[in-house]
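Recall that a protein's primary structure is simply its ordered list of amino acids. Everything else, from secondary elements to tertiary packing, is in principle encoded there. The following example makes that idea concrete.
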Amino acid sequence: MRRGAVTSAIAGDNIYVSNGYKDSDGNATIIEKYSIKDNRWSIINSSLVPKRFANSETYGNKIYIFNGWGNSNLEIIDLETHKKTKELLIMPTQEMQVLPFITEKYIRSEEVG
């Protein structure tokens, strides 16, 4: 399967690639993990909201996926359980101005509680 318009982030010995599109059947709603140590790919979650050209960052054993064409949701995936822990909807007209603030707020709230 070939993919494009993906986002990626690294945590520990793993690279996480999410969203984008698949050449075979449209939008990709998955996160794939590439283990650098084992040289192996695996799918860890397949419940993402479709988007292309998103951004992602890792912090505190979570991956934060945000912005992108298709929607501007912030999705937070726990890298231990591989489950979506939060999803925040952002108004399309506001996404570029407020996303850094909202992302920082959510990262800080995850640290606190």
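The two ends are 39 Å apart (CA to CA). The first helix runs from residue 95 to 112.
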